[in-house]
Design brief:
By secondary structure, the protein is mainly beta. It is built from no helices and 29 strands. The protein has strands at 3-4, 13-16, 21-24, 26-27, 35-40, 48-51, 58-59, 66-71, 76-82, 88-94, 102-108, 118-122, 126-132, 141-144, 154-160, 170-173, 178-184, 193-196, 200-201, 206-207, 213-216, 220-221, 228-233, 238-241, 243-244, 250-256, 265-268, 285-289, 293-295. Strands 3, 6, 7, 9, 11, 13, 15, 17, 21, 24, 27 and 29 form a twelve-stranded parallel sheet that branches. Strands 2-5-8-10-12-14-16-18-23-26-28 form an eleven-stranded parallel sheet, with no helix packed on it. The radius of gyration is 19 Å and the shape is globular. It starts with a strand and ends with a strand. The mean pLDDT is 97.
Length: 296
């Protein structure tokens, strides 16, 4: 607690434990070995928490390899964390903690100089709120929960994934449902957001996942991307609200056409808002679906 680990020749902070690990108001920046902080209790049973009391963020910037790496047996919680300006921002991994969540509130994972901003691999639900993952040389944020024994949700609110130069702004592979609320994913090398809740299984020639995709909020922006603005493969349909997907290769692409797909596709606009899907190089909207398609 209330500690700083900076300007060291190796990692700033290196913790291996079988129990709970809690960091409060801890900094790990400008370390010349590898990591600002490398934390692991993956062979134990406890949770890992890294929080700053704010309003300032815990500083894990400008390290030689990565700002923050966490391998956990239980839940992972980050609050008020800045892991920007590293070669890679942060890795959060808790595959050994069956069904344990990953929660990030107020996080900056931008300006990585050689790779991704934020990578999450989990068997539990993922909740991101007020996350910035912009301007990375790799992709912005990648989430994979396909190793879960049962479907888990992904929920992302008021977050941005802009101007990432090495892939998608936001990339999600999930067996469960995905909800986006107030998202910006503009100016990325590939798609603004790439979401797969089908997770096709060649052994059964159908989706292994059981999720839908919902986009809500006052405004969701998927503009000026090299591939699709918003690309998705969904098993149980999609409901999209208040979308701007312009000046991409394709604005909006939805695949919902495998044998075990069900549900419908609905694209809506709130009163006073107009969905804008224009100026794309190929399709504005491309949909293949088993269910009904409604645009209103």
């Amino acid at each position: 607690k209330n500690s700083s680990f900076s300007y060291n020749g190796m990692n700033g902070l290196d913790i291996t434990s079988k129990g709970y690990i809690t960091l409060v108001d801890v900094q790990g920046y400008h370390n010349y070995g590898s990591y600002g902080a490398r934390i692991s209790n993956s062979t134990g049973t406890g949770n890992v928490s890294v929080t700053c009391s704010g309003p300032a963020y815990c500083n894990f910037t400008a390290n030689t390899l990565m700002g923050l790496r966490i391998y956990a047996a239980g839940m992972i919680t980050l609050k008020n964390v800045d892991a920007s300006g590293n070669p890679s921002g942060a890795v959060l991994w808790n595959l050994n903690g069956a069904g344990k969540s990953v929660t990030v509130t107020n996080g900056n994972f931008s300006d990585s100089t050689s790779s991704y901003g934020l990578q999450i691999t989990t068997t539990g639900p993922v909740i991101l709120t007020n996350v910035i993952s912009d301007g990375n040389m790799g992709l912005g944020t990648a989430i994979d929960s396909t190793s879960a024994s049962k479907a888990q949700i992904v929920k992302i609110t008021n977050s941005s994934f802009n101007s990432n130069q090495g892939g998608n702004g936001l990339e999600i592979y999930s067996l469960g449902s995905v909800t986006l609320n107030g998202i910006q994913a503009n100016g990325n090398a590939s798609s603004g957001a790439h979401i797969d809740t089908c997770v096709y299984d060649g052994a059964i020639l159908a989706c292994r996942g059981s999720g839908s995709v919902t986009v809500v909020g006052k405004e969701n922006l998927f503009n000026d991307n090299g591939d699709a603005g918003l690309y998705m493969v969904t098993r149980f349909g999609a409901t999209l609200n208040n979308i701007s997907a312009s000046n991409n290769d394709t604005g909006l692409m939805i695949w919902h056409n495998y044998t075990n797909c069900s549900g419908n596709i609905s694209i809506n606009a709130s009163s006073g808002f107009t969905n804008t899907i224009s100026g794309n190089n190929a399709y504005g909207i491309y949909i293949e679906a088993y269910g009904n398609i409604t645009l209103q």
